[in-house]
Each structure stands twice: as C-alpha cells, then as structure tokens.
C-alpha cells in the first residue's frame, strides 16, 4: 500500500527507493515556457515551443525559431516517408538521429549557416517504450 508512504514528493519506501522515481517510468512529460517581454504585444502563434511530429512523437524547441520551423517540417516529412515506406511508425531514436545527421552536416563546411536550436524529442515506440532524446545545435545526439 504505497499510499501510506507517498503523500509528499520526496518520501522513501520501506525498501529504500523513492516513490517519485518509481512513478516516472511510465511516460515522458515535456513543458515549455513562453516569455513575453512587453505585456502590450499581441501573442503570436508562430512562437510555439512544442510541436507534434507524428502521432507517437512530440518535440520541444529552444533557440532560433526560424531555423526550428524548417527542421520540424523536415522531421515531419521524414516520419511520414518512413511510415509510407515501411508501414510502421519511425522509431523515436531514429528520427532524432536523422535530424542530427542533417544538423551536423551544416557544421562541416564554411559559408553554411549552422542551425541554432536544441530539440528534445519525446515519444513512444513498441520496441523501446517511452523515450526522451536530445538534439544539440552542433548535431550531437543524446539519450
């Protein structure tokens, strides 16, 4: 009966584990803050920080939104092409890695604009369950 022990966020079970950590194994949550410097400015829908890539993948963005919008559209297109070709959804890790490959390619040559944004991909696939992956501006990738 865990309800006797976990009425607060940092409570240890009789076995010595944190219930807060045990509960976090069943999903991924992404949150974004939208900041406004001037209260009198109208809100724009183009400054979203959370995007749906496919039915099983979402993405949180930090950085230059013009660059992010281009890469988000490419990620959506990649996911749709994969689904069309293989009749199953693209794995979250594979989607993140393909985007990182493109971003890293822009860092190799002079005269190309490197993408100035960071992505957090969260999603679910049948092989690996819930996942969270990071894509840095320079093309580095992390789980």
Automatic annotation (TrEMBL):
GO BP, one annotated term: proteasome-mediated ubiquitin-dependent protein catabolic process
One GO location term (cellular component): nucleus
Alphabetized UniProt keyword annotations: Proteasome
InterPro entries reported for this sequence: Ntn_hydrolases_N (IPR029055), Proteasome_alpha (IPR050115), Proteasome_sua/b (IPR001353)
Gene3D superfamilies registered for this protein in UniProt: Glutamine Phosphoribosylpyrophosphate, subunit 1, domain 1 (3.60.20.10)
The keyword S-adenosyl-L-methionine appears for this protein: no
Official protein name in the record: Proteasome alpha-type subunits domain-containing protein
Organism: Physcomitrium patens
UniProt lineage: Eukaryota, Viridiplantae, Streptophyta, Embryophyta, Bryophyta
